Amino acid sequence: FMTLNVSALHLGSADFDARLLELVGRCGLAPGRLIAEVTEGALIETPESVRAMLERLRSFGVGAALDDFGTGYSSLSYLHFLTLRMLKIDREFVCELNKGSNTSSTRVVAAILALARALDIQVIAEGIETEAERDALLAMGCEMGQGYLLGHPEPVRGRRMPHPPPWTETLEA
After folding, report:
1. Based on C-alpha coordinates, what's the Rg of the chain?
2. How far is CA 128 from the centre of its chain?
3. Residue 77 needs a FRET pair 20 to 30 A away by CA distance; which of 37, 54, 115, 167 works?
4. How far apart are CA 122 and CA 63, in angstroms?
5. CA neighbor of 30 nearest in space, from 73, 62, 77
6. Which of 39, 95, 45, 109 is nearest to 67 (CA)?
7. Contact 105, 97 (CB under 8 A)
8. Integer Cα distance of 149 and 128 in angstroms
9. CA gap 138, 134 in Å, rounded
């Protein structure tokens, strides 16, 4: 799959879904392989219109991910408000995993994983930079992650991207 960060501005555009699907079609990517990532910030201003846009995209197979999960005030409410394919655990929690197995961050990550499993939502841990973080996530059952331990940004077809995201990888060593 491929994820795409989508801003509140994008989601507020009435024809965003049509333009995105047209672009996906031109690239030859099946819509079911695309996941639109939104942050809680994109949901705060116009939650109903964002939900409607994500539902229209979902009707064509495009999934939705809630990025930076765990950092907002009402992230849990979005789990029943949106039909999500994926949660991305914020790196703030991941970097704390270096401190051992009995920290509040470890318990939060374990709770997010259990909640996601119960709701049949995939989880990606963001910002994995050390083997200790990767090992802790694997021990908790987190199967996917992204970060510099797993891969560094690369130019696309010889061109440098202005701000490429770290690649998403499976966490298996």
Report:
1. 16
2. 14
3. 167
4. 11
5. 62
6. 39
7. yes
8. 6
9. 6
pTM metric for this prediction: 0.82
The Cα–Cα gap between 93 and 87 comes to: 13
Residues 61 and 31: beta-carbon distance below 8 Å: yes
CA distance 145 to 64: 17
Token couple for 96: 């704390």
- Please provide the size of the chain in residues: 173
Helix 16-27 and helix 47-59, axial crossing angle in degrees, nearest 10: 30
Residues of the chain whose pLDDT is less than 50?
Answer: 161, 163-168, 173
Each residue's pLDDT tens digit, 9-35? 888 899 999 999 999 999 899 999 999
